[in-house]
Automatic annotation (TrEMBL):
GO biological process: beta-alanine biosynthetic process; thymine catabolic process; uracil catabolic process
Protein name as it appears in the record: dihydropyrimidine dehydrogenase (NADP(+))
Biological source species: Aegilops tauschii subsp. strangulata
Keywords for this protein: Oxidoreductase
Coiled coil, from the record: none
Biological or metabolic pathway of the protein: Amino-acid biosynthesis; beta-alanine biosynthesis
């Protein structure tokens, strides 16, 4: 987060994140040469498309929180990374992005992807009765916490479920719905 913080402190109006990630795709263990190669030689290339989407989501979430906490005076965040569907765009907006950019998706699927992406984003908005992007921008940010907090929340949930079960003295005290709920609670956390 330090590069984003420094850029914003220095007067940047916004951040665009993320670009491709420099990577080496592999080494051919027979020839001992990097892959892919041209005449036996290679150079690190950009890791992009769907593969970077989870990484981009994490970085956008972190930068959105930084902007919200330290630079609330209206800095912008443009999200980039593995956008191929309207749902991909919605995820970035839910994390606080002001805009969403697409590059590799259009290179791979053509410009028709943009219209499809817009239609899918509108479908998502209708499904949730959102009339504007502002209705859901950053809506998922409050649900991120620390590992320590997650462990504590899990402990509390287990403690509460145990307290509820203590009232069940025998199998006849269980109802079908109660059994299903208890089973679901053990696998849905």
């Amino acid at each position: 987060m330090q590069p984003s913080r420094i850029a914003l402190k220095s007067g940047s109006e916004g951040i665009a994140a993320i670009n491709t990630i420099m990577s080496v795709m592999g080494i051919d263990l027979k020839t001992l040469r990097p892959e892919p190669c041209v005449e036996g030689y290679s150079t690190p290339g950009g890791y992009s498309a769907r593969a970077v989407h989870p990484i981009a989501l994490a970085k956008v979430m972190q930068i959105a929180r930084l902007i919200k906490e330290e630079f609330p005076e209206g800095r912008s965040l443009s999200a980039i990374g593995g956008v191929e569907t309207g749902n991909d765009a919605a995820e970035f907006i839910l994390l606080g992005a002001d805009t969403v950019q697409v590059c590799t998706g259009v290179m791979m699927h053509g410009y028709g992807l943009v219209k499809k992406l817009c239609t899918e984003l509108q479908d998502f908005m209708r499904m949730h009765d959102f009339s504007s992007i502002e209705d859901f921008r950053g809506a998922s940010l409050p649900y991120f916490t620390t590992h320590t907090d997650l462990v504590q929340r899990q402990k509390e949930a287990i403690k509460q479920r145990k307290a509820i079960r203590m009232g069940l003295q025998s199998d006849k005290d269980w109802t079908g719905d109660g059994f299903v709920k208890e089973t679901e609670s053990m696998v849905s956390n």
